[in-house]
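This entry is passed on directly below:
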Amino acid sequence: MLTTNIVVALALSSTDASDPRWLTDPPIADTVHIRADDLAAAQLARARLRASHTDRGYRTDAPSVVLDIAVHIAHDARTARAELAAAGVHVPRTVCYIGTPAGLAGLIADIEAAHVADGVTIVPMLDAHRVELERRVLDDVMPLLGTAGTRLESSYRRTA
């Protein structure tokens, strides 16, 4: 069974991911939040940050690298795309996921397994749907990550 330690946070708005709410316990090490055009760029940024930390001879753990992902989920991918189109949302220049809760859980697990990042911040693409996104992530995505072997221990309590 795959044992992972991915951390997951939820941004409070589409424009500010700087102080997210952690859905899992936050990383123990210092945290560096990154945005990247794609997963390969994020993986390279993580490797460079960790190598730089090691090259400088720091005696502390390397920082945890947390990737911002712009997200919109619905019960099916077609609905998710239609909702974004109806809202006229401009897709941000970062890794995006538009689809289902199961697909998002798969992406998050893949990000950890491929060493793309140590965690993710889920950034809502539609601020008007943030409360619904929070509900779907807590009720649908997080349990799927738990069944995939992801260690999710948290004291997070729903606020919405």
Remarks:
- Helices lie at 39-55, 77-87, 101-113, 130-147.
- The radius of gyration is 15 Å.
